[in-house]
């Protein structure tokens, strides 16, 4: 009798994402600039700011510069992605904490804002990001603890821990 094995694609093991795992995580992406309109970057005004972000197995992201820097308003720009990374990381950290503490979150929405200032020399930096999460939980008796967990989520968020700007939280938690 001959054994024939057929390769099967499976999701990564759940333990790979286990909360007690310690170590390094590696991320790889490919960026392709699509803005050469025939003259390259011969002048500031002739080249396009369009690019694509590619990560194996994920949908492509179409990006550009902020509209203030000759980008296209309908596409993601690095500043959008920066604020989105902070907001989504905070949410994921918060949801994990709530789950561990048996606080049932029914809904979570955030309208995060960021303030970036130009330095007058062609550069600039973000001055701050403010998160405005509105969270609904199932049990009104857990409101105080659910509010407190936003600070802990901030401490645990990998992205927030990696940036030097102030990140404020103006959370509303209701039952």
Question: Mind explaining what this structure looks like?
Answer:
This protein is α/β, with parallel strands linked by helices. It folds into 2 domains: 27-76, no CATH class; 77-175, 2-Layer Sandwich (GMP Synthetase, Chain A, domain 3). Helices cover 21% and strands 24% of the residues. The chain contains 2 helices and 9 strands, in the order βββαββββαββ. The protein has helices spanning 78-100, 143-156, and strands at 30-33, 51-54, 61-63, 105-110, 113-118, 124-131, 133-137, 167-169, 172-174. It has a 3-stranded antiparallel beta sheet, with no helix packed on it. Strands 4-7-9 form a 3-stranded mixed beta sheet, with helices on one face. A hairpin with a 6-residue loop joins β2 (51-54) and β3 (61-63). α1 packs across α2 (143-156). The longest helix is centred in the middle third of the chain and has 23 residues, at 78-100. The protein is elongated.
Q: What structural category do the secondary elements indicate?
A: alpha/beta
Total count of domains: 2
CATH topology of the largest domain: GMP Synthetase, Chain A, domain 3
Strand content: 15-25%
Detail the poorly predicted runs.
Answer: 13-20
* Mean pLDDT, all residues: 90
Cα-atom Rg, whole angstroms? Answer: 21 Å
- Main sheet record: 3 strands, antiparallel
- How are the strands of the biggest sheet laid out side by side? 1-2-3
Question: Cα distance, first to last residue?
Answer: 62 Å
Number of strands: 9
Principal-axis shape equals: elongated
Number of helices: 2
CATH class of the largest domain: Alpha Beta
CATH architectural grouping of the largest domain: 2-Layer Sandwich
SSE run: EEEHEEEEHEE
The residue fraction in helices comes out at: 10-25%
CATH superfamily name of the largest domain?
Answer: K homology (KH) domain
